Amino acid sequence: MAPTAHLFCLLALLVVDLAQGIRGSLRAQDPGPRPLELKEVFAWFQMQFNRSYLIPAEHARRLDIFAHNLAQAQRLQEEDLGTAEFGVTPFSDLTEEEFAQLYGNRKTARGVPSMNRMAEYEGLGESTPHTCDWRKKTDVISPIKNQKNCACCWAIAAAGNIEALWSIRSKPVEVSVQELLDCNRCGDGCQGGFIWDAFITVLNNSGLASERDYPFQGKVEPHRCLAKKYKKVAWIQDFIMLQEDEQRIAQYLATHGPITVTINKKLLQQYKKGVIKVTPDTCDPRFVDHSVLLVGFGRDKPGEGMPAETVASQSRPRRSLPYWILKNSWGSHWGEEGYFRLHRGSNTCGITKYPLTARVVPPKASLVSCPP
């Protein structure tokens, strides 16, 4: 049975209090926070995210990990310079190593294609709008997917890019992520990959089948590529890498459509909502291990997402915060209904390192316009 709204509110408040208590306990090296309250919150977490553990020793181990992650969430909350909230998430009973193994890229970025970053492209002279959100245009952004235990963020992000471009310039499609996994040129689709692996696979196979014909399984069976069995519903001409310039990335996004980026996912395990803004020491922009789809940008309103007492205590009003909108692949129950936001203008978590996009045919004669 789901917790009542009253219980949910009480537990939410308790989580914040516990996180602060746990962090203080770790600093003081005392025996820890109030055991009964922590166990109650952990029981709520298990119920909320359908977690069960077979033996008492495993339950005790996961409880310790849960307590550590609450303390980590509180530390991130203290370090964040934006409006992000960190706390209990579906991954709160996983160690950092387990989370990286399940949801990060298990491969290093070897074999980066030899390509020049696009310095000039159609529409460069156009002014960049203040806001852009491709989710507002019908059929451009497909529903949030859940990669589960398959490290295939790279394939989901690339598929989302191709779907968006086809929907903008031709017709709505939903392409097969499973085909990218089964037919991946590197042969280990659930072990991680990079966006260029997906695009090269599409080029090698002369397109992609539909999601309906070739559905996602969340696993890969050796020698099971069925690319020749199904009709292609989308294909690409080539792919390009944009410059490491957030202004130009925003301009391309607004005038051409969503693009893929690869970021450092370190902060996402504890992320709940809001705009993440941190220093490079907290989220190293040189190390990127998670691919997502960049679907828009905007600015928050001063005080948005902040407690009223925090806003009232500020000596002077905070300036509005520019942000990117990114589509993740961990299901709609994570983050902001499957999405998250990063600060725009500071290369947060390495967002400018690998901005890639496919180019589709047939091209539209004129530039497209992103909904504000």
How would you characterize the overall build of this protein?
This is Cathepsin W. There is one protein chain. Strands 2, 4, 6, 7, 8 and 9 form a 6-stranded mixed beta sheet that branches. A two-stranded antiparallel sheet has the order 1-5. It folds into 2 domains: 5-79; 109-173 and 232-359, Cathepsin B, Chain A (Alpha-Beta Complex), CATH 3.90.70.10. It is 32% helix and 12% strand. The chain has 9 helices and 10 strands. Helix 1 (5-28) packs across helix 2 and helix 1 (5-28) packs across helix 3. The model is unreliable at 1-13, 21-31 and 308-315 (pLDDT under 50).
What keyword list fits this structure?
six-stranded mixed β-sheet; two-stranded antiparallel ribbon; Cathepsin B, Chain A; alpha+beta; disordered N terminus; 2 domains; 372 residues
Structural shape: globular
CATH architectural name of the largest domain: Alpha-Beta Complex
Question: Helix tally?
Answer: 9
**CATH fold label of the largest domain:** Cathepsin B, Chain A
Structural class: alpha+beta
Give the strand content.
Answer: 5-15%
Gap between N and C termini, in Å?
40 Å
Spans of at least 5 consecutive residues with low confidence: 1-13, 21-31, 308-315
**What is the average per-residue confidence, as pLDDT, rounded to a whole number?**
85
Q: What's the CATH first level of the largest domain?
A: Alpha Beta
- Rounded to an integer in angstroms, the radius of gyration calculated over CA atoms is 22 Å
Number of structural domains: 2
Largest sheet at a glance? 6 strands, mixed
Order of helices and strands: HHHEHEHHHEHEEEEHEEE
CATH homologous superfamily of the largest domain, by name?
Cysteine proteinases
Care to count the β-strands?
10
Q: Approximately how much helix is present in the residues?
A: 25-40%
